[in-house]
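Page 47, continued from p. 46.
Same chain as before, 291 aa.
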Amino acid sequence: MKKVKVGLVQMTCTKDKQENLDKAIGKVREAAAKGAQIVCLQELFTSLYFCDVEDYDNFDLAEAIPGPSTDALQVVAKELNVVIIASLFEKRAEGLYHNTTAVLDADGSYLGKYRKMHIPDDPAFYEKFYFTPGDLGYKVFETKFAKIGILICWDQWYPEASRITALMGADIMFYPTAIGWATDQDEETNQDQYNAWQTIQRSHSVANGVPVVSVNRVGFEQDGAMKFWGGSFATNAQGKLLYLASHDKEETEVVELDLSQSDFMRKHWPFLRDRRIDSYQPITKRYIDGD
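Result:
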């Protein structure tokens, strides 16, 4: 029976990049002290969620990966013997930027990165202004404690992304994310949106027979117009909630995942075995209408 303890860090951010990095490192230490072996930080944790506006000055927040933030986190990963999943704004080259997550192993080594594949462009989420779609494909990383798959925020709505990541052998799927409610919305709409967000990710866990860990930011941003809804959670391989964070508080929680459940669930609910892969070619079309 293989068990892994994962840490979820749900926190508020400020305009000060170094302050946010230092805070995140403190939260990693807190999670490690609680027994965490893998710690996941939320999407773009070194800054406020800047994609609410199209502002060229925000490109100054980007950095190389590997770079200053990964350098600092590698030291902490090695010291604490923990894997760190770190979502950062990557400057790849002049005028070329990505929404990227770096993975640092428990010995402090840099294992690589995943670049967000699905990029939204909605009111208050103008990510296409900043981020080039990922070109590394879907990724899994063989860490000291588990083989982990990384997807980022908007990726979470796509069963194709989670399926491919699971088929690459992920033991756990992690989703660093940043999503919230417009504060002028009614409560019923808020709950409908959150329930849809949680449900789609839990369905990835059910369909693929793997645990899912989703880590969201929390707190008011955008001059009070946006309340990032927190609600970070972890499921087992059947989509059962093992932990659910609040909508309005910072939380650092450690959850134990039993990875042996994946084999059990895939044998008893053999969705992977029963897939008709010979019938799926049409899914590569934009829409099935004869054009």
